[in-house]
Amino acid sequence: MNTLQKLTLLDTRLFFQVNLIGQLPSVKRLSLGLSRCGDGPLYLIIALLLWQFEQSRGSQFLQHALIAFAIELPLYLLLKNAIQRERPTGPLQHGWSPGIRPSDRFSFPSGHTAAAFMFAWLLAAYYPEYTGCYLLLASGIGLSRVLLGVHYPTDILAGALLGSVIALLVLQIVFSSGVSTL
User: Fold this and answer.
1) What is the pLDDT of residue 68?
2) Does residue 106 come out as left (phi exceeding 0), alpha (psi in the -120 to 50 range) or beta?
């Protein structure tokens, strides 16, 4: 067995161990709520509220979030469709079924997690006093996707890395140029 096969086996085992917790009704409800936070509209609402009520930083935050999402979404879709890792399966073999119906067939990387970490790091750059809360919520969104049975743990790690790198690159370019965007 090669290294990739060993990693896949470990990832699958970890998925089923974590997913057992996700079958508990209270955990499933919490996971559904966290997963919905990562669906997208909440990011737009937060950015628009910051833009409306916190003019100086809110306007720049909105601009940089739009740039970051314009990079993240196509890159995430490109990776997901190039890698084509099938989502977890096995209701008959393992006695479980996904807690939600995924929007597509492939799982790697997790788009919910990528967007959550990207948004968390952008918020942290502009509103650092709550950085721990942003990252905790992003982590919860990622974990909820495993608990709901639609992603493997490495999908979440890859999504967190993708979103973090995009946010940090956008912030680095914006802050190193010293030029306001849009």
Assistant:
1) 95
2) beta
Tokens at 66, concatenated: 């739009």
Question: What value, to the nearest 5°, has the Cα angle with vertex 145 and ends 141 and 149?
Answer: 160
Q: Angle between the 3-22 and 131-147 helix axes, to the nearest 10 degrees? A: 100
Structure confidence at residue 125 as a pLDDT band (50, 70, 90): very high
From residue 80, give the alpha-carbon distance in Å to each of 72, 74, 87, 110.
Answer: 12, 10, 11, 8
Helix 41-53 with 55-83: angle, nearest 10 deg: 160
> Looking up tokens 């492939």, which residue turns up?
106
Cα-Cα-Cα-Cα dihedral of 149, 68, 37, 35, to 10°? 0
Q: Which residue has the tokens 């942290």?
A: 124
Residue-level length of the chain? 182
Contact 43, 65 (CB under 8 A): yes
Q: What H or E segment, with its residue span, contains residue 61?
A: helix 55-83
pLDDT confidence band for 13 (50 / 70 / 90): confident
DSSP state of 100: S
pTM above 0.90, yes or no: no
